[in-house]
């Protein structure tokens, strides 16, 4: 043992010790560097869980969609777990959800050339690939140029007046009813007014048939795209087929000059006659009529129901609005309102805007990456779908003080840029936003000046299987005519 020890201390071996120590230090450094590089690679990709191969988190997404919490609950839970940017996998595609006004500005406000619009496959198949909601950047500009004139304020005047007439008739029927479902009646009057504007349908039987088919399509927008008889998606495809056949017949009759109406469809066909090669195809016209009916009816009616609910929960605001309305010289006017209603009551406009913020009917806006890039310091791969999380921005305390409080006066001042996305922002902002706001203002004015109301059931559960957050109970109210109140 002693001889062995002495041998280890002899010069030849002793000279190797520094080399061994150096090799040990280098090897240890390399071993530390390998995990660090892996961590950096993970950090470069948004946090999240892409779930099982192919399936991803589709089952959890569909479970939220078919629950009374609504599809956004899937996003909300992951936003709380991972932060303002996370990734997931839905229906075979990688989705990234981002809650940021800066990203909203980049992706939506300036129409980044690195991204284009992309909705989930089921939406594209049901609305049609020529729909404004699903078209590429260039195609969108082309279609929007053709149909935008229909949504100028002057052109919408007759539609707003028609809507007002429908609201007055509807509210008149409420007086003898013990309970009214606001959402049900709002869906009906918005649908009838929009169909009159777009395709001049007023016959109640025809409207009922079309309404049922539209309902089938809208109810399956986020359904699993399984084309088997009996499935929700299959029924929706058949409903879309019936709608397209009906619209195709309308177009054929008008092109043969067997019918002629003053409406959106006729306006498009007239333009197409003069534009020659620069005209919309029949498929583009039909896809976008379907899109406009669904987008205009469901989102506006849902917003009306939420607005009625929020005001019932904030009686001071409701009574302030009523007092302001009753001071107006036109409070009892039997003449229908036109687009001037947008300037009639500034405080009411703030109530509409606050209702839209809190309801966040369109919860996120999707864009697909056309090449590898970075967002919020995270790497985004080509083909990934980046969703701007509008609802989260609407409830961000950095954008809005006390965001969970219904406070219309917050809009006395301009909100933070790119923080209000009820209608989107940028080049793809909703063309019908002024029409939607006018409808909400008309409904609000007629309701407040005709009745006092009370929401009977305060349940905030959402309709199962709905793309947009719609109150499951339909916002039931009881009303008392204002004129019958004791002095």
Care to describe what's here?
The chain is α+β, with helices and mostly antiparallel strands and 487 residues long. It has one domain (48-484): Cytochrome p450, CATH 1.10.630. Helices cover 53% and strands 10% of the residues. The protein has 18 helices and eleven strands. Helix 9 runs parallel beside helix 18, helix 10 (182-199) runs antiparallel to helix 14 and helix 14 (282-312) runs parallel beside helix 18 (433-450). The longest helix is centred in the middle third of the chain and has 31 residues, at 282-312. The termini are far apart. The chain crosses the membrane at residues 12-31. It comes from Canna indica (Indian-shot). Heme binds at residue 430.
From the N-terminal CA to the C-terminal CA, the straight-line distance is 114 Å
Strand percentage, roughly?
Answer: 5-15%
Domains (count): 1
CATH topology (level 3) name: Cytochrome p450
Count of discrete alpha- or pi-helical segments spanning 4 or more residues: 18
Flag low-confidence runs.
1-43
The largest β sheet comes out as: 6 strands, mixed
* Number of beta-strand segments: 11
Strands of the widest sheet, in order across it, are 1-2-3-9-6-4
Tell the overall outline. globular
Order of helices and strands: HHHEHHEEHEHHHEHHHHHHHEEEEHHEE
What Rg do the Cα atoms give?
29 Å
Transmembrane segments: 12-31
Family: Belongs to the cytochrome P450 family.
Pfam family, one: p450
Binding site for heme: 430
